Amino acid sequence: MTEAIFDRADLRGTCMAGANLSDASLVDADMRDGVLLKSTARGGDLAPVIHDEASAGMERAIARGANMEGVKVSDSMIVQTDLTDCNLRNAKFIRANLSLSNLTGCNLEGADFTEAVLSGAIFRGATFSNTVLDNADLSGANLIGAIFEGIDLSKVDLSEAKMPKSVERLDSGLQEIIIAHGNWVRTNGREGSRAELSETDLSGIKLDKANLSAADLSYSVLRNAKLSRSELLMADLSYADLCGATLSRADLRGAKLRRANLADANLADANLVGAVLSEVNVSTRAGGGEWRASLEHAKLQRALLNGATIRNADLEGADFRDADLRDVDFSGSLLIDCDFRGADLRGANLNNTDKRGAKGLPRSD
Asked: Least enclosed by CB within 10 Å: which of 153, 296, 315, 345?
């Protein structure tokens, strides 16, 4: 049922266990628990299905990229279901069981998970904005890389949940790590050590002009961080939360920003003016090659990127809605399924780009 349209459909009691609903649209559909019917052995009469025979829900289903805005799924079984990149804005999951499900990259703005079971679920890169989690069970859930805005977690069971670690829990002091990393970069690894800052909360950190080339910052929280003029060549910023970060004139050639968040729900827009996000040439004994910058599925709504260089980059599925993209050089980049709606693209260079499935681009391009 990939790309199927069930908008505003009454699917109460429907059993979709194991179904493939990837890229389907279920806007405002009603999938709450109900009564199923089956054919009896004699005469073909219809009889209710009792819950030890079948249950409503989407257990072990695949719904990657589905639009489920406003869907009603209360009291349903959605165990071990792949909901990667789903739009679940304003969805109702009251008392639903989503344990062990994958909600990576989901938009959970305004969703209601009151008394829902979310134990062991994966929320990497998911956006919690005004999401209701009253008495929800997130025990053992993976929340590293998730973005939280206006969320009350006081009534949530977070026992054994995976969260970003604080700077105080690092093996060494942050300044010591930065110095050792600088030595590691300058001596090509002969001295010092690589900065391993993955899954660390570095909110508001001031690292202007720091050399963090090839550092591991994946899944880190860098909200409102000051990184202007910093060296981030080939740094791994996958799933990093860079909301409100200042990256003016930073060098991000070859950086990995897959599923990174550079949006700002508070409208204090991320600043990447003049940043370099193109490929970098890498010399190796095997002859070298190019290391492409990656921003697959990155969130860059309202980001300031005017004048940035993003040549030959992988931007598949990136969200540039309402971003300032004046004079950006996108030449040679993959823009497959990108969303440019509302973006300012005056003077942008889109030569030799792959624009299949992209939204919001000027017709002349």
From this structure: 153
